[in-house]
Each structure stands twice: as structure tokens, then as C-alpha cells.
Write a structure and sequence with these properties.
Chain A has two domains: 2-73, Ubiquitin-like (UB roll); 76-153, DNA polymerase, domain 1, CATH 1.10.150. In chain A, helix 2 packs across helix 3, helix 2 (81-92) crosses helix 5 (138-153) and helix 3 packs across helix 5. Chain A is built from five helices and five strands; from the N terminus they run E-E-H-E-E-E-H-H-H-H. Chain A has helices at 22-29, 81-92, 102-115, 121-128, 138-153, and strands at 2-7, 10-15, 48-51, 54-57, 70-72. Chain A has a five-stranded mixed beta sheet, sandwiched between helices. Chain B is of the alpha+beta class. In chain B, strand 3 (45-48) and strand 4 form a beta hairpin. Chain B contains 19 helices and 30 strands. In chain B, strands 11-12-9-19-16-17-18 form a seven-stranded mixed beta sheet, sandwiched between helices. A five-stranded mixed beta sheet of chain B has the order 1-2-3-4-5. Chain B has three domains: 3-203, Aldehyde oxidase/xanthine dehydrogenase, molybdopterin binding domain (Aldehyde Oxidoreductase, domain 4); 212-284 and 346-426, Aldehyde oxidase/xanthine dehydrogenase, molybdopterin binding domain (Aldehyde Oxidoreductase, domain 4); 305-338 and 438-719, 2-Layer Sandwich (Aldehyde Oxidoreductase, domain 4), CATH 3.30.365.10. Chains A and B meet through helix 1, helix 2, helix 3, helix 4 and helix 5 of A and helix 6, helix 7 and helix 18 of B.
Amino acid sequence: MAISLKLNGETHTVEAEPGTPLLWVIRDELKLTGTKFGCGVASCGACTVHMDGEPVRSCQTYIEDVEGTEITTIEKMEEDKVGAAVQQAWRELDVVQCGYCQSGQIMSAVGLLRENATPTAEEVDEYMYGNACRCATYQRIRAGVLRASEILEA
Amino acid sequence: MTATLSRRGFLKSAAAATAVLYVGATADGVAAASGSADAMLNPFVKIDSNGNVIAIIKHFEKGQGPATGLSTLIAEELGVTMDQIGYEFAPSDPQVYNNLFFGPFQGTGGSTAMANSWMQYRTAGANAREMLIKAAAQAWGVDPAGLDLQEGMIIGAGNSAPLGEFVAAAAGIAPSETPRLRDASEWKIIGNEATRRLDSPIKVNGQAKFAMDVHLPNQMVVMIKRTPQRGGLVASFDDSAAKEVKGFIMAMPLPTNHGVAVYAENTWAAMQARAAIEVDWDMSAAEARSSAEIRDEVMAALEAAPVYNVNKADRAGISAAVDDAVTVVERTFYFPLLAHAPMEPLNCTIEQTAEGDIVLHDGAQMPTGPHMAYQQIFQLPPEKIHIKTMLAGGSFGRRATPDADYQVEAGLAFVMTDRSRPVKLVWDREDDIRGGYYRPAAGHKVRIGLDGDGNIAAWEHQVAGQSIMKGTAFEAMAVQDGIDHSTVEGLADNPYAIPNMAVGLTDTEKATSVLWWRSVGHTHTAYVMEVMMDLAAKAAGRDPVEFRLAYLTGSKDAERKAGVLKLAAEKGNWGNPAAGHVQGIAVHKSFGSFVAEVVEVSGTPEDGIQIEKVTAAVDCGIAVNPDVIRAQTEGAIGYGIGHAMRDQITLDGGAVEQSNFPDYEPLRISDIKAIETHIVASAEAPTGIGEPGTPPSAPALANAIAQLDVQVAELPMSENGVSFV
């Protein structure tokens, strides 16, 4: 079926069967590969995108449910005030190692900071719990969110 | 491998490649944009006439930092800033880009990327600098001795010009036999805390291209319907339901019959089609054992005389000395199978060019492996096979298998087609968790005899486990007199000066394929050594740090190990935990580096332990990129502790019981509240840092928990009496 998908401000018409995860439409059809496949069961967060500004796991978000919403991916974060602050903090602190999970980490971090501009370390841990990083960059993720908060508050 | 040999090897290859002058586009886009000529000044540095400098990185980047680290060496010696250098991954060429510690074999592992490249890349950078300076000196008619290259400018004798101006002329100059390496006092980038990773910017904006992100025109996605038990074979299969899946192309059994290759137009179609295929498996030759049987075999082997006397000790005498000791401390340990579970599931993409060449796009940890395998599969000479190394989303050892398992799978899936369409092989997380190549199961039995003064009189140690190297292409190199060193590393060769130590080894059956896993044998040997040192100290009524230090004398290694132990104790406030906290400590040498860690925890094993802080001290020689060393130490600690807390792979009737992150739970952000890493200043040549932080982490945690009267001699902790918050 043809589905109209608004992604990063542009409207796309994609052919996809109902039940197709948004993740695979983004990656395989629209060829935006910043959004990653990690587990397919919403337990690692590597596929996190924003739906109407809220982080969702795109591997468990089905294409028929996204019509009428605005989807944003990591590729658009540079233009987002919070997204740019998080990216700046990530670069300053060299949060990444392999980097494969970091798009999802950043999308979640942006979600947190939009909801809570000045989180505590404990609140960061609570919010980011579902984003796995096998390189265990967690301590820098935590510091990165707190640093991004500082950048935004300045 | 000595520096002299490295340099000689470099000069030979440099001479061979110096004459090459590349014109036009390159893969990185930098030179393509300039439209200018690139000079390959040697195999490790490429510079164009606009002054764009590219370091050619012979190691793959899985996050451990060689893209930044090897670029640092080139930039330092050449005389450019980190903003003036980019990087590319080297092609597969075991003659030019081999790991100098591995022989004629290109590959990354054993925390050797920096250690084996240290002189080679510095020499390459120094040679490029000298060639450019000579070219400038000729043009200016001055003595090259009065010139230097700094921040991309050739300067001196009243002249100044950007290095790009002399690239073409430099390409015609022979490299020096002995280029002058910059003295440590001149270093601006090596050791600089401010250096940032070169791959950070593209990894925070979605632009980084991992192998999984390769999308070739007209490609097919292939997934493999796998046997649930190792050794199972396809008897027959029914793909009629798969034909209902839109995008399904075809299904064929692999030539090995170990699975059915499912071809589809895209990943989701491949997943769905694979799920719809019914396979009738011939399990007559399949593995049917369960974890309990594997454990029973290991434990039984520990009770019998060992097959191998690893350190040629007088076992009977040492055993008798333990029997006669005033105090005997005895423990038996067991370590389960573990999966690596890198964040990016295994995958690679393969295509055939118009000329009939084969190109593999892969996060290639050991390019020589698939390069050799593909010569067989495609019946092609090596020069017709090309490997494009992509960024890898983690590995921890998994992307390097002696039999190039997933690349061979892709090769077989491709060779069965007419090769008109590229094939992208994709594993999902379930394939990864169930796909074998685990950290081997191992057991240890240790008996320590203490004399009346609380000193070690004798140490009887026995290991039983599954050999990683036996039966692989690495056996000849890694197994001596039947002893697979990777099962016992860190025991008899430990810098502790332990008197009367006997180490025995018995191999047990491989009920599944096993593989090196971040820090290899040290994953279990360090745990046993360090938990036993604590137990011995406790039996002797001595402080664990003081007790260890008593055995850390008499060699340079022992002194370096003592150095990190003391530093970790000092920085971790050893002996003075916060109110309600307890501490544990461990120290270990692996891959040439020394790491000590103090783990401080709160809570109780019954109600839940919280890891409050880990304080690490690291001596890995010269700290080339200190912040990368810290990051690797943080990650290595998390990797070691996360698995020790709650992970294991178990088999039931030969089938793996775990399948995905919900039942192979990764370390999460809240599991460790803080990690602090301190680096020992050193003038020694750099050694590894990707792995050495892992070995001491789990025993330091165990030693902390032991303060709460729960001794964990079997992992994971969560299955053996310890709960976590």
C-alpha cells in the first residue's frame, strides 16, 4: 500500500505493507541510515526517532501508524536547538566509541532535555535506561546530557 | 616485535610504493573535490597538492580508536594539526598492511593496533616530512637541515610554504633509510589531553557509514534460516508461505547445508520470508548437549590429573607442599559461555564488478581471513578480490573468526546466484546471540598453602576449558606442546612472584564454537587469580593491597603492576569507603598493559548491590591519546562488569536458550554510577588498551561483594547469590 510519510519536514510516498516497521522504511526505502537496527524488539534504543517530537522505537512503530505524524531522525538534529546542543556536548566529551548506538542515544537525550531542561544525573539514568551501549559509554552519555543542559541554559 | 624490525619492514614497503602517483578522484572525496593529484608518499600517508593529508589506517575502527590514534602518529611526525588530517581505511593487503605482530596477516586483535603501529606510523610520518622538506629545500636552494614542517607549513631559511606545494616533487624523492623521529620533547599531539576523536563528528549526526549502512544499487538482502543446534543440516524445506511475502525472491540451502539462504528485496522482506520458511532438520550429527553437561565435564576434568603441565612444575611436590601448609585456601570456579553481542549485528555486502572482481564491504577485523576464503569460493587470484573496510559497530572479538564465518556465509550466498545483483548478508540479534563463537566455558580449581607467617608457600592451580585455538588456522601459531596459551594466559606468566606455583590444563570438548572475547583467557584467569589473592590475604589476616605488593617485586613487570595497584588504591581511597559502602580491588597485566581497579559498592547481595564507583589506574606505556585510553578503560570495565553481573549463554539439548537483549541483558546506564581513570606517566612504548581494563573489573567487584560475606565463584553473579539494584 502507498503511505504518505512526513519525515524531516518532507513528505514522502512509500510503498510498504501494513506491519512494516518504520525503521525499515527509513533505512531501506528512504536510505537514511543514521537510524540503526540493533535488536528489533525495542530493547536497545538504537532505532530511536522522534514522532511529533517524542522519542519512539522505530523498530516497534508500524508504518500504518505514522500517517499524519511528523517523524524526525538524527539527520535533522543539527537544525534543532536541543539536538545541536547535545551533538556539541557529545563532540566535546568524545562520548562515542563504535558509535552505532549513538544516534539513538542522542534522540533519547533530546527527548529528555525537551521534557526536563535541567535533569539530575539520576534522572538521566532513569530516562536513558532503555538505550543500550555495548561499548559502555554510559558515563560520558550521562555527562553529555548534563553538559548539553548547561549549553542550553547558558 | 622490535622497533628495528618494524622500521625495516616499513622501509621496504615504502620504497615499493613511493613511485605511485594517483591522479583524480579518491574514495574519501577530499581529493576528488580538489581535482588535484595525490601523492602516495608511502603506504600510510597520502597528501594532495592542496595539502589534504590522509592517514591510511591498517586497523579497523570498532570504537577502540585507531583511526584517531594512527592519525595522531602521522600528524605528529609529519607536522600537521589534527584538524589538518583525515583518514581512510587501508585496502586488504597482507604484505603492506599486516599487523606486525601477526606475520603476513592483516588484522586487529589482542589490543595490538597502537603497539604494532607505533614505530611504523611514526616512521611513515617522519619520512613524508623529510621528503617534503627535501623537495622544498631543492626548490629554494637551501639546506634541508634548516627546515621544519609545522602545522602544515614548511618553514625555515627565510621561506615558508604550505606542504601541498611540494607534494608532486616529494613523490619523486626516495624515502630516507633513517628518518629523524621527533623527540618526545617536541610532541604536541601525542599525549595531548585536548585531542578529540576524528570520528566523533560523523558519529553524532548520522553520517557515519557502518557496513550495515551499505546500500548498493539493485542489492538483495540475504538472511540465513539457521539450524537451532550446531551441526544440524537441512533435510528439506518448504518456502511456499514465504512466497506470499512481498519482496521475497528465492530460498536456497547453503552448499554446506547448514542453513537456508533467503533472498529478498529488502531487510524486512527477508526477515518475514525467513520466518515463513519451514525447515526439516537432520539433527543426527547435531550437538545435543546442555549447559549442565558442559559444566559437569569441566568440573570432572578439574578433579582428575591435568593433561598438560603448563609451567613444567613439580606438581606432586607442590601439591604435597599445599597439603603440608599451615593454612590451605581452596576454591573451584566456573565461567559460562558468553556472547560478544556487538551493537551492530554481523553483516557484510558483496558484489562483482564488470571486470569480474569481487568486492566485499565489511567492518573487517581480519581482512586477510575473508580475502583467503574468497580465493577458494570464487576461484580467483588475490588481486581480483577487494575488501572495503567500513566502520564497525563494535566487535569485542566477534568480527574476527578464524574461519571468516559470516563473510564465508555471504560468499556462499553470492556464489549461488548469477552475481548480477549484490548480496547484503544481514544477521539479526537472534542470529547473533544464538550464532556461536562464544567465550569458552572454563573452570579453575586452586589450592593455596600459606605458611605460619601468612605467606604463600605453594599454589596449585588447575584449569579445564574449551580451547579457542585448537582446530583453527591459528593452532600452529598459538598452541605449543598441546597447550593453548589463550586458556591459561595470566596465570603462570603473571608478574606476581609466587613461589612453588603449578599450573595444569585439561581441554574439554567444544559443545559449541568458541572464540576470543574481549581480553580472551584473562576474562577468567584474572578473576581467579585476583579472587584467590584476596582470599589468601584474608586467611593471612593481611590487607589485600599490602599482601599483593609483597609479591610484586623483582621484575620490571612486577614494579609496573605494583605502580598501578598503588595508584588505584590511592585515588580510589582504598580502605576508606563512603559510609555504607564496601570496596574490592584487583590488578592484572594483559596485552602488555597493567590495570588496577577499585570497585566501591553499596547495598547488600540480598536486597541489591549498587556499583557506586570504579577507580582505575592504567599503565599502557606512552599515552598517545589519553582521553581514548580513559574511554577504553571505562568501556572495558563496563563490558567486564556487565557480563559478570548477569550474562551467560546456556544450551538446552544443544540449542541456545537466550535470543536477544531481554534475556542477554546488556549493562545499562544506571548499573555503574561513576568511573574514574588515572594514567601512569610512562616513557615505555605504547601497549594495548582495548582489552586490559576488562580483566580486573569482575574480580574487583567480586572482592567488594565478598566483604558482604558472599563469595562468588561461579558467574554470572545474578545466578549465584547476588542481586543488583
